[in-house]
Amino acid sequence: MVAIGPYYCHLPELQEMEEVKKAAVFQFCRGASWEAYVKVVAVANVARSCYDAGSLEGVSDADFASMMFHDACFLLATILAITKPEQCELPLVCRIGTNTPVVVTDMFLLENQIPWMVLEALMTFRKVDLCGFIATMGMNVQSRIDRKARPLDLTAYEPPHLLGLFHFYQSGREITFTNLDFTLRPPRERMLSSDVVESGYTRAKKKNPPPRVVRERARILESLPLGTSAIELAEIGIKLTLSKSAEFKDIGLTEGLLFRKLFLPSLRLNENTACWLVNMAAFETCVAFRDGDYTVSSYLVLFAMLMHREQDVHKLRAMGLIHGEFTNKQALDFFKGRHAGSMRPGYSFYAILRRLERYRQKRWLWIAVYKFVYNNAKTIATVLSIMGVLAGIFKALLDLKKQH
Known about the structure:
5 strands, elongated, transmembrane, DUF247_pln, 55% helix, membrane, transmembrane helix
């Protein structure tokens, strides 16, 4: 585990990584540490203003600049070691190996983010394939071998930090935020004020939500139409299918003459991706300005809606919508528990709910007939087969009778 930024750098169990950061500075700067440090100092005051003043109490400007320098060098050197291992000789803890998943996970914790301007300043000193790194991480989330990594254009969006860039890449949508929204307040305070659910995938802790939040979540759950699991939707003529793109914003319900198709991108679930998803949703909750900004949250809540039992998870796997190392039970616990099961969805999720309800109300007779046929298909096929055999026998008897 590694602390990036001011919130956890004092923890004793994370001090070993501080030595690794020093090695990262040497490897990334290639003997020109002072020139690189000057670039960070030039933006340190602006970067400091992104944090809540209380979180940096007792930290001098020089100490803050040094912290940003070491942490940014560590981040960029780790990315360099993953994307271009031949150009970076970091210790094994930062290289592709047994510790890489842990380090990469910590890089995308909401409370481990440092202002983008610091990374940008160092990237003028040494080129890093940040776009390739984010695209590789995105492929880990999607796990679609039939698709190539989507390109990322850094000129199209200026993110607040690394997690914000990953969110932009995965969601396919830019969040509108103000400088006030961007303030990196202490994670516990920020999550409490934003009603972000307590999660094992963040280091921040949260007390029980206030009654207002409990009532709001209960209202959302009550608004879900009955029979929305993967199996139940199939029974009423709604087919689940993969969306055309891998962006989380690409979810919806198409209307055909008789049937409907509910489409969404596939998802690979393991400890890494689960952590990334929770932190991207937490980032949305902290800075979302419009209802349409809750892209990742809507995507995850939609998946949660499709799962009521482990059999639903199994069906989603069979359809190619869920992959990964999580068992069916682990996936169900993730989506229905205190992680994705308590997130705030946005407009796109409610648009799907409205279309589902409209379909149920307008096509109720067709749904009843289709559901009966769907649930009794084997029995109907058996009866029709028997009727066909009996018809053949009767025809043969009639032919014999005519001959006599």
